[in-house]
Fold:
Amino acid sequence: MRHKLLQQRFGLMWLGYLVAIFAWYASVKWLPISSFQRLPDPLTVVIEWFNPDPDYGLSVFTVDYYLHIWYSTARATTSFLLAVMLGVPLGIMMGWRARVHEYASALLSILRPIPPLAWVPVAILIFPGSEPAVIFVTFLVAFFATTMNTLLGVRSIDSDYFRAAECLGAKPADILRDIIIPGALPSIFTGLQIAMGAAWFSLVAGEMIAAQYGLGFMILESYNLVQYPTIVIMMVTLGIVGYLSSAIIRVVGNRLMRWREQSLGLAGA
Structure:
């Protein structure tokens, strides 16, 4: 039964891809709208993408293609790890200690709605060189997502667990290890998946303005050079790499959730 459901899900997924590709082709080839006709059709993009001698210089057979992927992946991963190291502890403390929440929540509420592009000039002024500026802009969005989801995870834990632990003489370290981290783990990993997606989103914005390599940089550069197939190639590549990044986090989270259920005796429930 489960195998059948997976097959059905897989078929629907590819049906969605085919419908989107058909709509793309129809919009470019058949719609009487001149602006749509300037876009490359799917076949043109695929031919350029897998061309050993690409017309615009980038394909799966060129070194520069993987160089741009490497730069973007390194920036997104660095920003994500910084967000985890700072956002998870802050979110835990905000959800656990009311005083910390009072200190930090007002500032986060003001800074969180500011879009990534608004931070780019400030980052360029503060940090020497373009690389730290791009990482800083990318880190901010991932940091807010990680912190807020961790906070919600800690707040979702039943307060009876805390009272019971205190009555049994548990120390703060015991409460953190045995109650807060296991209880907040599902929300933390949900936040990490959101944070990784947000990191890629803000990374592209930063790379378009303050970088010399990367997928976002190439999207803007290809637009300036009227290399429209390369724009689509970079966009699809960005989607694939971003999806794989979130999928890795999801797999790790599912494994940890399984361990958590087994440790609590819920695996067979």
In short: The two ends are 20 Å apart (CA to CA).
